[in-house]
Amino acid sequence: MKTLIIIRHANSIHQGLYESDFERTLSHKGEKEAILMTEKLSIKINSIDLFLCSPSFRTKQTCDIFFKKYERAEIKYEEKLYHASASTIYNIIEKTDESFHTVALISHNPGITDFVNSLTDIKIDTMPTSGVFV
């Protein structure tokens, strides 16, 4: 892998009385954010070979929005990405087949922020919803 793209899921609707965190869906604002970030990313990144995605509903919805621009990519839902720690994210990336040139990983905070902060000297407080780090 030569390019790694880290994406936090788009803004979601707050957990309702009868819905689990895993089943939360994107808000209208989240859908618009993800579409905007897909457009911005596509200016810099021409193709994505693989999406590694948490299987939660909001991450799947986020992935679907990005996938519309990168339809040749494969999608792999990785159970361990649901609220994964930075070390779990490292392990998943390490086990990813090297034949994939560009990989996008879609997951949750706080693991996404911790992972991004481990890659650079510049520290962020939180990776925003629909945030992208390449």
What is the gist of this entry?
This protein is α/β, with parallel strands linked by helices.
Describe the structure.
This protein has a 5-stranded mixed beta sheet, sandwiched between helices. The chain has 4 helices and 5 strands; from the N terminus they run βαβαβαβαβ. It starts with a strand and ends with a strand. With 134 residues, it is of the alpha/beta class. α2 (57-67) links the parallel β2 (50-53) and β3 (74-77). Helices cover 34% and strands 16% of the residues.
Write the layout of secondary structure elements.
Layout: E1 3-8, H1 28-44, E2 50-53, H2 57-67, E3 74-77, H3 86-94, E4 102-107, H4 111-119, E5 132-133
Parallel strand pairs: 1-4, 2-3, 2-4
Antiparallel strand pairs: 1-5
Helix pairs in contact: 1-2, 3-4
Features:
16% strand; alpha/beta; five-stranded mixed β-sheet; 134 residues; single chain; 4 helices
Distance between the termini: 12 Å
Rg over C-alpha atoms, rounded to the nearest angstrom: 14 Å
H-E string: EHEHEHEHE
Q: Report the mean per-residue pLDDT as an integer.
A: 95
Provide the structure class: alpha/beta
Could you say which overall geometry the principal axes of the C-alpha atoms support? globular
Give, in spatial order, the strands making up the sheet with the most strands.
3-2-4-1-5
User: How would you name the oligomeric state of the polypeptide chains in this document?
Assistant: single chain
Strand content: 15-25%
Which residues sit in consecutive blocks of at least 5 with pLDDT less than 50? Answer: none
Tally of individual helices = 4
Count of distinct strands: 5
Proportion in helices: 25-40%
Largest sheet entry: 5 strands, mixed
